[in-house]
Amino acid sequence: MSATQTAWVVIVLGGIATFAIRGSFLLVATRLAALPATTRELLRMIPAAALAALVVPALLRTDGDLVLLGPRPLAGVVALGIAWWTRSVLATIAVGLVAVVGFELLLG
Q1: What does the angle CA 73 – CA 101 – CA 69 come to, to the nearest 5 degrees?
Q2: What's the number of CA atoms in the CB half-sphere (13 Å) around residue 60?
Q3: How many Cβ atoms are within 10 Å of 60's Cβ, its own excluded?
Q4: Is residue 93 within 8 Å of 80, Cβ to Cβ?
Q5: With CB atoms 3.0 to 4.6 Å apart as the test, which of 5, 15, 99, 103 could cross-link to 78 if both were Cys?
Q6: What is the pTM of this model?
Q7: Rounded to the nearest 5°, which phi and psi values hold at 38?
Q8: Cα dist. 88→38, 53, 61, 79, 82 in Å?
Q9: Rounded alpha-carbon distances, angstroms, from residue 71 to 39, 58, 63, 67, 82
């Protein structure tokens, strides 16, 4: 099998696996409705926890070192304030981007 054929097989199998994983939730949707309210509330927090697990190390572990006072952590605090104030993802990203560039220029 050539490399091109192998790549296509991997792409097709990956697509089928992705479709099966996403479709499996439709099969268990009625069971999810029967979950206790506390469990449903905890499940709603998973995306925010996953996002925090990705963002916080990027802000605090610049170049592998822990940095608590630097351009990125300060921009993160600004973005957090904007997120809390506006509840807008777009505004948070835009202001956070401007803040990180501004703090990088000011603080180096």
Answers
A1: 25
A2: 9
A3: 15
A4: no
A5: 99
A6: 0.58
A7: -65, -40
A8: 26, 20, 26, 11, 8
A9: 38, 12, 13, 9, 17
